[in-house]
Design brief:
The complex is a heterodimer of chains A (310) and B (235).
Chain A (H helix, E strand, L loop, with lengths): L1 E5 L4 E4 L19 H10 L8 E5 L4 E4 L3 E9 L2 E3 L2 E3 L4 E4 L4 E4 L4 E9 L33 E2 L11 E3 L11 E6 L8 H9 L2 E3 L7 E5 L10 E6 L4 E3 L7 E3 L6 E4 L1 E5 L4 H4 L7 E6 L2 H18 E3 L2
Chain B lengths: L1 E4 L4 E5 L6 H17 L4 E6 L3 E6 L6 H13 L11 E6 L10 H7 L4 H9 L3 E6 L6 E3 L14 E4 L3 E5 L2 E4 L4 E3 L2 E5 L20 E6 L2 H9 L8 E2 L2
Parallel strand pairs in B: 5-13
Antiparallel strand pairs in B: 1-2, 2-4, 3-4, 5-14, 6-7, 6-13, 7-10, 8-11, 9-10, 9-12
The chains are: A alpha+beta (310), B alpha+beta (235).
């Protein structure tokens, strides 16, 4: 078990996500930076989808009530155990009574904490992920708060830690995100598409797990900004009447009535989830075949990212 | 019909650009055919009014292979038989202006009496085109005579269960939400109940009728355990 001493501004339980519920209006949830989340779990000796914590901008402080391996990844947040510095992107052995503190992000936005075995909160509609707007999953459908006690599932057969084989990601710069144009690229002017692909877009502080709100060169519509409502894919770039893009993320509305100029590729969702307000992103268009090739490369790279130590 | 990519994990199959029962029936037929045939690589489908968003696993299929598999199914949607729909009765209290707070104004706008609005609203069988935007929100059609321009100034809060109309649509708010629709009444049923084993009451393809209830019956149903009133009838 762990006891939460300070929750941080927004800390939620997430696992691999809730599949198959979008047709009822329930989003998948799960971690925004899936790559960092999977690596944290592997470092802690879990399958990639075990339930852990996603923390935002600032991490939690908690007391361990059992011996356990944990791992912290994602945003560059300082980790201490009983006040002594501890590594991130690595397994840490903690024992009962240890106080783990995860500080403010120096780069990136979202940090992940995995625990050997994974957090034991009830499975709701096939997932432990928290969807706050729908009061679903996680701890009573809400963010983690002070004095919560989170149980752990039994860890898999004890094994030596895994180790990171890859360089840690650098979230300090302004990234280029790959997009596939559409589904409604034909509802925009050529200049509007050129603005999207040529300009830099600043991340706004109103961004959340539902969507990343951006500000930059206006993406002009050819014939109105409303469409007959349809499904919104992960990464869909919605452009309302003001011509400013919103990239829809894991807690997105399942359907909507605004034009979607393009869709951020699945393998770049993790990256946009680590862009701080004030940082900028650029978009580059690729075709679906190229996106699938890059997705395979990303999957292979993730499979290699962590190695078990024997 | 056309197919367009929606990133590397989804594609959209679009039918005629209109809101109509005919076009939406094709969307639902395609979703049903995909379920029946088990198209390789498809992981999830999301119906809208006139398009079906198809999520797929690119490690199990390719965009071209999936398009090739979906084209013949989309062609069958005009004649495909859908399973019989569920018929669901929604009790709704129109009489109390605290619950149906826009009924009188909507009636004025429509040049009808409030009683006539209720009669028209309860005398129609609605199709749930799809459920979306927030958990459990049904998008339904509307008797033509009740077609009404949306509110000029949207409300910032609409209580859950509010039965409302706007444009050529009827919807029920499952969560406390902003809203631009005219609220005619309120149902004590929970359209979305995160604690229930099936949190969402209505589904794409359901047929819905409203039954006018008194405030006393509303209070009684609202106080009873969720959905134990036997309002959901299956064929």
């Amino acid at each position: 078990m762990i006891r939460v001493l300070d929750a941080g501004p927004l800390t939620t339980v997430q696992d691999g996500g809730r599949a198959g519920q979008l047709r009822y209006g329930i989003p998948p949830s799960g971690p925004v930076d899936r790559r960092a989340f999977v690596i944290a779990n592997r470092l802690a000796g879990n399958d990639g989808g075990a339930a852990g914590l996603e923390c935002t901008v600032m991490g939690p402080r908690f007391e361990m009530q059992a011996a356990c391996a944990i791992a912290v990844t994602g945003a560059d947040m300082p980790v201490t155990v009983n006040g002594s510095e501890a590594p991130s992107w690595a397994a840490i052995d903690v024992k009962p009574g240890d106080v783990v503190k995860i500080g403010a992000a120096r780069a990136g936005v979202r940090g992940y904490v995995a625990f050997a075995g994974g957090l034991d909160v009830p499975v709701v509609l096939g997932s432990r992920s928290t969807y706050i707007r729908g009061r679903l999953g996680g701890v009573e459908g809400r963010a983690v708060r002070r004095d919560d006690v989170l149980r752990l599932l039994p860890a898999a057969a004890p094994r030596r830690h895994a180790v990171m084989r890859e360089a840690r990601p650098d979230f300090s710069g302004d990234p280029e995100l790959r997009v596939v144009l559409g589904p409604q690229a034909d509802r925009f002017t050529d200049d509007g598409i050129a603005a999207l692909l040529g300009g830099a877009y600043e991340m706004l502080p109103q961004s959340d797990r539902m969507g990343a709100r951006l500000r930059g060169p206006k993406i002009a519509h050819a014939r109105g900004h409303d469409i007959i409502s349809d499904g919104i894919p992960l990464g869909g770039i919605q452009v309302p009447g003001d011509g400013q893009p919103i990239v829809l993320l894991v807690d997105r509305q399942s359907t909507g009535g605004y034009t979607k100029v393009a869709t951020v590729c699945s393998f770049d969702i993790a990256r946009i989830g680590q862009v701080k307000p004030g940082q900028r992103v650029r978009f580059r268009a690729i075709d679906v075949a190229e996106a699938h090739r890059l997705a395979r490369e990303e999957a292979a790279s993730l499979a290699r990212a962590v190695e078990e130590k024997v | 019909m056309r197919v367009v990519p929606a990133g590397d994990l989804a594609l959209s199959v679009e039918f005629a650009e209109e809101i109509s029962v005919e076009t939406n029936t094709r969307v639902r037929a395609l979703e049903y055919l995909i379920q029946q045939k088990g198209v390789p690589g498809v992981v999830e489908t999301v119906p809208g009014y006139r398009a079906l968003l198809v999520y797929y696993d690119p490690s199990a299929t390719s965009y071209d292979a999936l398009c090739d598999a979906l084209q013949p199914l989309a062609a069958q949607t005009e004649s495909a038989a859908l399973p019989p729909p569920r018929h669901i009765e929604i009790p709704c209290c129109y009489e109390d202006p605290e619950l149906g707070f826009d009924l009188v104004k909507a009636a004025e706008r429509l040049s009808l009496s409030p009683d006539e609005v209720v009669r028209l609203h309860t005398g129609f069988e609605y199709l749930v085109y799809f459920v979306g935007f927030v958990p459990g929100l049904p998008y339904m059609d509307l008797p033509e005579r009740l077609t009404i321009k949306r509110l000029d100034t949207p409300r910032t809060k609409t209580p859950p269960g509010s039965v409302s109309i706007g444009g050529a649509q009827c919807c029920i708010y499952p969560l406390d939400s902003p809203g631009g629709f005219w609220v005619l009444g309120r149902t004590p049923l929970k359209l979305y109940d995160p604690g229930a084993s099936e949190p969402v009451l209505l589904r794409s393809g359901d047929r819905v009728r409203y039954r006018a209830i008194s405030r006393a019956e509303f209070d009684e149903l609202a106080g009873s355990p969720a959905r134990s009133g036997g309002e959901v009838k299956r064929d």
